[in-house]
Design a protein that fits this description.
By secondary structure, the protein is an alpha/beta fold. It has ten helices and ten strands. The chain has a single domain, classed as 3-Layer(aba) Sandwich (Rossmann fold). The strands form two sheets. The protein has a six-stranded mixed β-sheet with strand order 6-7-8-3-9-10, with helices on both faces. A hairpin with a 2-residue loop joins strand 4 and strand 5.
Length: 254
């Protein structure tokens, strides 16, 4: 059996007297995995526990078998586990293309001195990164905005830029927190195309998303939370038919 990208073991977290996550265990296999559940189910809290923005009260998270206990968010990112947030965060004063290129900073090989002196190796590397970033913007329909300040773009476009920037970092596992929130139908379809292409290239993606059409279209595996506990998991079709999921999340009319 292939080693899972991520394994949560008995995760527990309380805020005051409220138990946000309760003895939660699950695995994230390769591909695209959706983490769904009603509002207040604990989905974003799980992301914060995985990346150690919040230390868990109990339990552990293993990234390709390595415990993340006690590691800083920066150290976790250095291992190749990256995340985005519900609200888009672009770098002001930089174009959409420059924002996307910034995601590759961990993989720049040419020394800073060579970059400052614009030596040939630095120019070649920058040109390659520029082409890669431009290709990503083209995939999500933002090629015409490549030279537009990212902060001037609509919020939906900013979210697409943020996802592209995260993928430029070449993560092993990418956590996406509601990437389709605020997107129109065309932008949502472009997001789906980008995520599928990323997964096909070997990036495992764990996505929190309320757009059930998107989830069912792109996810290989679905994990369902309710009140901080595991409710169900399986293929999209399995989850779609599960009576507990229908009652708790999709609604009895579904």
């Amino acid at each position: 059996m292939n080693q899972p990208a991520l394994e949560a073991i008995g995760l527990t977290k309380s805020f005051g007297g409220v138990r946000a996550v309760a003895d939660l265990s699950f695995i994230v296999p390769a591909g695209i995995v959706a983490l769904i559940g009603p509002n207040g189910a604990g989905k974003t809290t799980v992301f914060n526990l995985v990346t150690n923005l919040f230390p868990p009260d109990g339990g552990d998270v293993r990234f390709y078998g390595t415990s993340l206990r006690g590691r800083t968010p920066n150290a976790i990112a250095g291992l190749g586990l990256l995340r985005t947030f519900q609200t888009a965060r672009v770098f002001p004063g930089m174009t959409a293309l420059e924002n996307v290129m910034a995601g590759a900073h961990r993989h720049v090989r040419v020394a800073a001195v060579a970059q400052m002196l614009w030596l040939p190796a630095a120019l070649r590397e920058e040109a390659a990164l520029r082409r890669e970033a431009a290709t990503m913007l083209d995939l999500v329909g933002l090629a015409r905005f490549r030279d537009t300040p990212a902060s001037n773009l609509p919020m939906g476009a900013q979210k697409l830029v943020e996802v592209c920037r995260a993928l430029m970092a070449r993560p092993r596992l990418l956590l996406l927190d509601e990437p389709a929130a605020g997107l129109n139908d065309a932008e949502t379809a472009e997001t789906a195309t980008l995520l599928r292409a990323a997964a096909d290239s070997g990036v495992t993606i764990l996505v929190v998303e309320h757009n059930m059409s998107l989830v069912m279209d792109i996810a290989d595996h679905v994990i369902v939370l309710d009140l901080g506990r595991l409710l169900a998991q399986g293929t999209p079709e399995d989850v779609r038919r599960d009576p507990r999921v229908i009652e708790a999340y999709l609604g009895t009319e579904a």
